[in-house]
Amino acid sequence: MRVIITPNHQEHQSPYEIWNGEQTPHQEIPARVENIIAALKNTHHELVELEQKVPMRILRAIHSSRYLSFLSDFCPTLSDGEYKYPSVFALHAQTEDRYKYPLTRLGFYSFDMYTPLSNATFRVALDSASAAYQAAFEVKNRAQKVAFALCRPPGHHAEPNQMGGYCYLNNAAVAAQFFSQFGKVATLDVDFHHGNGTQHIFYEREDVLTVSLHADPDWKFPHFSGYADEKGAGDGDGFNLNIPLQQGTTNSQYQRSLVKALTRIKEFGAEYLVVSFGADTHADDPIGGFALTTKYFTKMAKTIAELELPTVIVMEGGYNTSKLGDNVVSFLSGF
Ligand SMILES: [Zn+2]
To answer: Has 214 been annotated as catalytic?
Structure first.
């Protein structure tokens, strides 16, 4: 399988996150991807450096223009090594063009204190999004069935106009938006956390089905999205499926829910598939809470591959850095 990698990802390295009012070590670190690359070098997978750039028209179809302008204007104003965190968030939805002061805009376009900006962040996030784009482009144009975008930073929490959950641009949505020009697309999010951004980007669309299996949000991040009664709206009514799962979910419990998710994708008649893969469902993940095993990731992937759809796999979370390589290799081998 071709694996698209982005050599500049190390330039984005958030120094800490703010949890319960305190600075705690940031979980989304460059070693995650370096560990995956090291593990992939011992396999038959082909590591390919990023060559393409995600077109602005694709980004503007999934993110608001003002949010994109904010990221491109704000990041270069920061000095080397400086990271800016929001302190106050928008209390009520207001018109985006109302706010001019940089820190007001930062609060408006953020939803947590885990996702700071540096002068490299937008550039690195653009490359991460471009990796997803290149993977989709190759699957469409090179007659290969599947490609893996080794994205960092991850993307599935990035909303149409907000960063959060370590995510700035929605990489999975980039791939889905690209595929949607050619047919019906399903996104399948098997990260431990709910893919709130992907859900909301396509919430009112019937041409992109969004499906997510994740920790019950009443228990885990992102808390305010991911409930079973969120089913889409307008034209997209009925085209979002959330399957919240409980603490300690085992391989066999997960497998049953996965089969349910895939049944919906088949019934929808998807012609393309985008998989948001996070290894934070593993039993030893420091911020997870399920009981999945490394070996199960192969079975999970095999079950997904039975759809026989042109597929892009996008890397999302997974924070047990020492096990991440093995977990990704196990998942990819199922394809
Ligand atoms: Zn996650």
So the answer is: no
